[in-house]
Write a structure and sequence with these properties.
The protein is of the alpha+beta class. It contains 13 helices and seven strands. Strands 2-1-6-5-4-3-7 form a seven-stranded mixed sheet, sandwiched between helices. A hairpin with a 2-residue loop joins strand 5 and strand 6. Helix 1 packs antiparallel against helix 2, helix 7 packs across helix 8 and helix 10 crosses helix 11. The longest helix is centred in the N-terminal third of the chain and has 26 residues. It is elongated and about 70 Å long.
């Protein structure tokens, strides 16, 4: 037992908490998709721990996970109750940079890499209780009977929450597996060439008569909403290569697509049509209403 009021007891408690900080931050980040909010949730857990008698806590890992999860659930519900922040009529030029309050771009990039940009986009579309249940069970192996009190459901209902979330995460491909795999290879090559600004590689993956269509919000002022021909589209893609750094493959409306999600938040989606192992056309979607209407899921390995 630790004496919380004494210096030694407090220091020992702080050491025990620090041993759990990394895991708690990982849990909170997957629930919130924000490094700064995850840090806030972990700090709140420490404040709560510092106010109780640690001797009465039989399983500190479980106790802290429960506290952080409840804090995250409240934050998610509060976020949903606020009006949506409007997205501007034009994407920022530094869209490829990861920005986060209270941390550097490198910190955010590491967190995103650990979770997966496409998964963060999908998690952001789940209801608060669904997200909590899925993250705790599927990503951290917490039993449903321990999750149930957090989301105020029975274990059976909690299992259904996680199952429903799992289906949304996995999605439903509309093309057969072998064809999906071929399309994935083509889109991966396109994205790699876009990231590297490799004009020749782009020309190799684009159909000669490829067509690119874009929402007005996705193109610079004065630029055309439609482009035709491999060389024109490839040159344009090279100019916008910075955006590709925040991009990832995803299942979009059941086919292989690309999501551009700086900080894990979807701002652009690409719907691509692959024919004869080349990209025949693609559409760039940036309109908030159209983005919300998309069915986005994680593209399986």
């Amino acid at each position: 037992m630790y004496e919380q009021d004494g210096p030694g007891g407090h220091d020992a408690l702080a050491e025990r908490f620090e041993a759990h900080r990394g895991r708690l931050r990982g849990v909170a980040y997957r629930m919130l998709g924000s490094a700064s909010e995850a840090d806030d949730a972990v700090q709140e857990a420490w404040l709560k721990l510092s106010r109780v008698d640690p001797g009465g806590i039989g399983n500190l890992t479980g106790w802290l996970t429960t506290v952080v999860s409840r804090v995250c659930l409240d934050m998610l519900r509060s976020r949903r109750s606020r009006p949506e922040e409007p997205i501007g009529q034009r994407m920022p030029d530094d869209i490829g940079a990861e920005a986060v309050d209270g941390g550097g771009p490198e910190d955010e990039a590491v967190l995103i890499e650990s979770v997966g940009r496409a998964l963060l986009v999908v998690l952001d579309r789940l209801g608060p209780a669904e997200r909590i249940a899925f993250v705790l069970h599927d990503m951290f192996a917490v039993p449903f009977d321990e999750i149930a009190p957090i989301v105020d459901r029975t274990p059976v209902a909690t299992k259904k929450l996680a199952s429903r979330a799992r289906l949304r995460v996995r999605g439903n491909p509309v093309v057969p597996g072998p064809e999906l795999d071929r399309h994935r290879e083509v889109v991966e090559a396109f994205l790699a060439a876009a990231r590297g600004g490799d004009l020749d590689a782009l020309l190799g993956v684009l159909a000669p008569d490829v067509v690119r269509r874009s929402d007005p919000a996705a193109v610079p002022p004065g630029a055309a909403a439609e482009a035709r021909g491999a060389r024109t589209v490839a040159r344009e893609t090279v100019i916008l290569a910075g955006r590709a750094q925040a991009a990832a493959l995803a299942l979009v409306n059941g086919t292989v697509g690309i999501v551009v999600a700086p900080g894990g938040r979807l701002v652009i989606a690409l719907l691509l049509t692959v024919e004869d192992d080349r990209i025949a056309e693609y559409e760039v979607i940036a309109d908030p209403a159209r983005l919300r209407a998309l069915d986005v899921a994680v593209l399986g390995d």
